[in-house]
Amino acid sequence: MDLIDRLxxxxxxxTALPFLARRAMIFALSILxxxxxxxxxxxxxxxxxxxxxxxxxxxxxxxxxxLWRLWKPLFYIVLVCxxxxx
Length: 86
Fold this sequence. Notes:
This protein has four helices and no strands. By secondary structure, the chain is an all-alpha fold. α2 (19-42) runs antiparallel to α3 (47-65). Keywords: Membrane, Plasmid, Transmembrane, Transmembrane helix.
């Protein structure tokens, strides 16, 4: 039995949860990843790896709370400014 076959029942149980419960679980795990990245940075582990972990946790938290929709217009403004500065 492959690993993916073992994980399918858990995935089905996860998708059976209500939408807000799934998003709350993803948010909690994203914040946990963010805290782990900060803790590793505090222990002076490779800064590049820690930065990637912190960014991944932050992006997961933003995505799970749908706050990225608020920042999308600002992102486009920044992209236009960067294009003009080139």
